[in-house]
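Work Package 3 (structural annotation) set out to generate three-dimensional models for the target panel prioritized at the project kickoff. During this period the team completed the workflow that converts sequence records into discrete structure tokens, so that structures can be stored uniformly alongside our sequence database. As a representative example, we reproduce one entry of 74 residues exactly as it appears in the project archive.
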Amino acid sequence: MLQLNVLTVLKRQNKSKYWLFNQLNAIKPISYTNFNNIVTNKTKSIKYSTLTNLCNILNCTPNDLFTKTNNNTK
């Protein structure tokens, strides 16, 4: 199972979740609920465009955002 580690990347960069929401929302409007579900791993999918925007805003690659876990819980 893949886990999205946006909060970890934000912490390393001394940025807040609110800052990221504002940056992402400026590119393409997204509800705070959907955004929060993405960054807290409560979503089952993520659009490539959202992933691309996250990488551009955070100046990172998808490898920086994801880790593979052995947890296969649905």
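The mean pLDDT is 92.
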